[in-house]
Amino acid sequence: MARAINLRRDRYLFFSGLILLLLGGPGLLVGSFGHDAFRIPVVGQAYDAFGWMNQTVLGLGIVLLVIGVLFTALALKGGVLSEAEAAELEAGRSRS
User: Fold this and answer.
1) pLDDT tens-digit series, residues 31-43
2) Which residues have CB under 8 Å from 12's CB, separation 6+?
3) pTM for this one?
């Protein structure tokens, strides 16, 4: 049963990381530049400058992208247990 929990955790990390990668990478970058390219008046009408709104959205995109990469890297562990985790499972006191 603990093995299934570890695999479920890794699957959750993988898909969460994938979603964050898709949101952080192209999604928010397109949102940042889409305001200027399509002249969408969300907050203000400074289309010719890379203003505070573009910088904020770009910063959020970078943060989500980095978190997505970390989650995906953690998920690549693939349910492989360390020696300490295997010992906990055998002793019956796993916390995962």
Assistant:
1) 777 777 777 776 6
2) none
3) 0.65
